[in-house]
Write a structure and sequence with these properties.
- This protein has nine helices and twelve strands.
- Strands 1-2-3-5-6-9-12 form a seven-stranded mixed β-sheet.
- Helix 4 runs antiparallel to helix 6.
- It folds into two domains: 236 residues, no CATH class; 87 residues, no CATH class.
- The protein has 348 residues and is of the alpha+beta class.
- The protein starts with 17 loop residues before the first helix and ends in a 7-residue tail after the last helix.
């Protein structure tokens, strides 16, 4: 990524979907969850809403103007983090807990007093349940793969006596529990005898099992590639540390933007700690997916929110039905939170 090149200009969305609005509502809930957790726990710090946002969605009057203003601001100061954390001694009560709609030129000097900016990401998963399910899945397909390998080597060894097939012996012998996550081979197309068809089917079963094992099996902290430049620009503009908080429905993890850059700039970490994928849930935008366990659990327990369905009527008569979230509580691990933010626990 070349930080000296201008960013790609984004195309204005023309239509919102029910799924998009539900994801937006979930993101707003996650921001509110983190804000309340900090403000109800800290004696000396306060979290306020800062990221540029609006209740408008694509297709409503006024959205085009809002979106173009947002794009202009990205080029001017970069991307505002969702939340800012101030010392209470620097907090301006006249501006209150939400400065997201105030033009940046009016609050530049105030923003520079913040001690941290936080980008909040949300995920519709229970991370503990997910990891338990992934471990069961991995164990299952590991057992199938190794048993299939052993069956081929014990019952079909004669098949590989032909010179054109003997290379498969080396492939099979190289498959171990430790190499399953990197093993790849072409399933043979043998069909000239019943025995060859049987071993071909076993190779296909082995290949399918290996594919399941090699799928990404961790939930992630998810910075979008297109955001890296504009987040970095904001940090340069204000010289304030920046952090990502990933909110699940049972835990919250935090990581610094500096640590994110350290992880993704090391090629040895790719497909181990992080992957780069087109996110189908986010308009196929290229997204960096960093193993959440690379971060620090800043809330080891979250009470789930209440949820309800909402009907939204668009100008042309289109009806959108989506889900809103209210309430819930994040129980902060103060020690871990302060460690991530670089704040002394006694001062929090």
């Amino acid at each position: 990524m070349d930080f000296n090149l201008p960013r790609d200009i984004a195309r204005t969305p023309t239509q919102a979907s029910s799924n998009f609005i539900t994801n937006k509502e979930q993101g707003d809930w996650a921001e509110n969850l983190v804000t309340r957790a900090i403000n109800e726990t800290s004696k000396n710090y306060v979290a306020i809403k800062y990221g540029k946002s609006d209740d408008l969605v694509a297709g409503q009057d006024g959205f085009d103007t809002f979106y173009q203003d947002f794009q202009s601001e990205l080029d001017t100061i970069g991307k505002r983090p969702d939340l800012l954390i101030f010392r209470k001694s620097d907090f301006d009560t006249n501006l209150g807990l939400d400065i997201s709609r105030i033009p940046h030129s009016h609050i530049t000097e105030y923003v520079k007093k913040a001690v941290a900016g936080i980008e909040v990401r949300s995920s519709a998963f229970l991370i503990d349940r997910y990891e338990a399910a992934m471990q069961i899945k991995t164990d299952k397909y590991t057992q199938i793969a190794l048993q299939t390998r052993d069956l081929i080597l014990s019952d079909f060894l004669d098949v590989f006596e032909h010179p054109s097939r003997e290379s498969y012996i080396q492939i099979l012998k190289g498959i171990t529990e430790n190499t399953l996550n990197v093993t790849d081979f072409r399933v043979p197309s043998w069909s000239s005898s019943e025995r060859l068809v049987q071993v071909k089917d076993l190779f296909r079963k082995l290949k399918d099992s290996i594919r399941e094992i090699q799928k990404r099996n961790y939930l992630s902290i998810t910075p979008k590639v297109e955001d890296i430049k504009v987040v970095y620009k904001w940090i340069e503009e204000f010289n304030i540390p920046h952090y990502y908080f990933q909110v699940f429905f049972d835990k919250v993890y935090g990581i610094s933007f500096e640590q994110i850059l350290t992880i993704i700039s090391n090629p040895d970490n790719e497909d181990v700690i992080f992957s780069v994928e087109a996110d189908t849930k986010n308009q196929n935008k290229t997204t960096i997916k960093i193993n959440s366990k690379s971060g620090v659990p800043i809330a080891k327990k979250v009470d789930e929110p209440k949820h309800e369905s909402v009907r939204k009527e668009m100008q042309r008569g289109q009806l959108l039905f989506y889900v809103t979230f209210k309430g819930g509580t994040a129980y902060l691990d103060i020690n871990n939170l302060c460690k991530v933010l670089g704040i002394k626990e006694s001062e929090f």
